[in-house]
Structure of Glutamate or tyrosine decarboxylase:
Amino acid sequence: MSDSDTPRSSAGDDLDPQDWDTLREHWRRFVDLGVTHLEGIRGQPVWRPIPEQTLHLLARDLPKTPVSLETLYQEFSKLCLPYGNGNTHPSFFGWVHGGGNVYGAIGEMCAAFMNSNAGGRDHVAIHIERQVLRWCRELFGYPADSSGLLTSGTSMATLIALAVARERACQPHVAKTQGLKAFPHALTGYCSQECHHSVAKAFQLLGLGEDALRVVSVDESHGIHVPSLAARIAEDREQGHVPFVVITTIGTVNTGAIDDVPAVLDLCQQEGLWVHVDAAFAGALALGKKYRHCFDQVGQADSIAFDFHKWFQVPYSVGGLLVRDAQAHMHTFGSRKDYLATESIGLAGGQPWFCDFGPELSRSSLAIKVWFTLRALGGERIGAMADRHCDFAAGLARRIEDNPDLELLAPVRTNIVCFRYLHPDEELRDAFNRALVSHLQFTGRAAPSTTRINGSLAIRIAIVNHRTRMEDLDRMVDDVITLASHLSQPSLTDLLRPTHWHLMHGGDARLLVDPATGLNRYGCAPFLREHAYTFASSTATSVSGHAYEHADIDRQKLLHAAWEADAFLDVAREHAQGLCGDIARILGIHDLAPEIRLSPSGTDSQLHVMAALATIVDRPLISLVCAADETGSGTPFSVTGRHFDATTALGAKVPKGEPLRGMPYIGFHGEPLHDATGRLRGIDEVDGAIEQKVAKLIQDGQHVVLHAMDYSKLGCWSPSRHALERLHDRFGAHMTVIVDACQLRIDQEDLRQHLAKGFIVLVTGSKFFTGPPFSGAAIFPRAFDQRLREDGRDLPAGVADYLPGADLGSWHGKLAEATNRPFNSGAYLRWRAALAEMQRYYSVPVEYRCQALDSLCAGVIEAVGRHPFLELLFLEGESYFERTQWLGRELSSRRTIIPFLIRDEAGYLAESRVKCLYELLNRDLTMMLSDQMPHKMGPEAHAIAAQACHIGQPVKIAGRNTAALRISMGARAVAEHWQGHPQGYLQSVAGELKQVEMILRKIGLCLEYRLC
Ligand SMILES: Cc1ncc(COP(=O)(O)O)c(C=O)c1O
């Protein structure tokens, strides 16, 4: 390269602004914004949840080109500043978060101006840190030749201190060079059960293992029980272990207790153990008057860790460490390479370097903000604040003790108060107090946190913010008491119950879990059942962790919204409407503005629809059920407007088989798919019979309610799409079509077409989409709903036993009698869980969804075909195999339910044996089989026998004494494997087929040993 080719830099190549005056103006605006924010902090909510929209705006790709400072200003002020941690607010009482201070903030900004690397060398940041450490020595009584450094917090300071203690204990084997393996004994450390978890983490990281940290009990003041400590050390010595360190705490995280440090020091001196003092937050008490004496002897401890960012109010993050034995400290961390050589003079001077006292080489200048804070405020002011906070805590404790509804859960030693509200229902107490805390946070009133004291959930108040006044604490207690009185409505109280409770209620007794098996009568659980292989989407599936989590969040959101509004029905109605909107959106029919009526089940939905039709149709009604031999057992009742069970989902006792109050007589005709000999009738044959029957009924003056089957339990349908269209064209005015699409194996295109023709569509979120069982909905076309609303007549009064107030939607005002329950939280949350599955499914790109379904279905068919004792019910190329007439190409036209029959040497298994087999598959059979097997069960047989396999319930084949089992593809098998990109996706999906193989082998095992 010639000289002229050498690139020259020009103005603007560096990263500085071109116009410093403009920068200055912007800078000042940012400072103004921050100062104004802090000045007005008391008038702001303590915390606000970050809106989805804001998170969306924050999620940007890696920036390639610059944005203006004006844009950054706008984004910071609107998207960031309002959504902070809350700890600058006087009503922030959670965990142990310091409030920061404005002088420290100036220090932080000044440190950024200098941008020093405080790892070492000779510059002013090093000298300021040394100065700050000298102040620390003075405060805690450490000798002038002790070492120390500032850290990111007490967790890091403790890790470093314990590394030094470990190194000293291992000499001469030197953990540093040879590792702990070179030390022949197990090192053990000691702390109280109230010790902070950062100590256990340090043990993990130092290779000692958490078990080497012996946890000792506490006395009634929650300080370490020194006799137990002594006993445990002696016990370990007896066992040949090497005790090396005791961690003692001044200011425990749960209750603010103070260990008896002098007693611990005495013991450790006798035992020759390292004493580490954790004074993370309470270190600031050494600046005050009241607790100064607690620090009298800490200078004799081997090390002390403390945080400036907590009670000292220095902005995050900065903690400190002092170590008495500077040599040991330096020995543990000090080793350098050539590129870090020091000199006696020049920038490379300044020995010793801070990088020799900890693991970090590059370090920011943490000391400057501490220096600013201590100099601007003076230690006395900070000490007085800490003392005052302890007085506040004592005052708060008195107020709690004076109120019979509140209970103090631990003695108040310093600035932490743990208490709870005594909810009358003991079972709900923990949930209630947990909800109280999140409600205070959610509404921005205050931000306490929670902990457990002697097993009970406690509202934990840590007074650490310099802005906090006694009136802030008084207001918090007033809020707790007022909020508790709002939460007395039973429907609201129910929302405190865990989400799995709701998933079991508001449906059917079959949802209740048998405590012995942890399963309901569908063989599934309302909580994560990770170990089971699940291909039961044709019947019911255990909730996934993903869906449960979503439902749980929704339960809490609903609780908090209703609590705040104090008008439960309105809020529930709003949430139910929101849910219906979400269902319409995810199904791609939102623009058609359909009316969605939630229900616990498809059968309930049938009843809702019949009630609506009975209201507006003047002719006599008759239900014609297509594929009648493949619908639910309650259908003949529900489609004729009769109670299909003795108890409704809302818990009302009703006469099974009797018509609902106010319901007219409704006739019934069922058109089966099988004939009397068990033969599956052809599609055309069934179409013809239906068309004839409809024509006849209409001619007789009846209004036909045609219950079309758009995917039955076995994956069949009736009538065909063309027959349905012909019927609609011929008899539209005297016929209403209800499409049973409860399997929801139907695409948007077909769903839209049904609605466009005025058909009512029944769906559930619990079949293909694997939401929890009992989440149904009837989707009414807009025009139908309008007609119903405009009709002056009321719905049959008996519907009140089935429809809770919140779910009435546009039917509000059409039920003369009020419903006895305002809300079915179970149906709501089951749908929320289902929606989470639906969203996850549709977030996989369509081509991958289709490929995954293809490979899974083909894999199951192939696997079933390989087993001689199994026989597929439908073969490729036969009618009912795939649905070529339908519009949608994803679910509508794919066979995703794969039924098969089971044979043994005597022929097809009788229905009762299939039922037994189905139940055995879902259980651990190892005990049962080990009695039967001649030899000890091999590992492979053991694994098969133990595996819980949940597949579709048996379906009796009409006219034959056998039943089909089903392995069905559900949304979860497709969505769970998607990691946001196609790499490895299909291989991962194919892993599901190994589970299928295992299921089939388990069937083989059951047959071989005649378990059924
Ligand atoms: C007693 C105690 N020790 C250690 C820690 C950990 O300190 P840091 O969060 O600064 O790492 C805390 C934090 O709350 C604490 O309260």
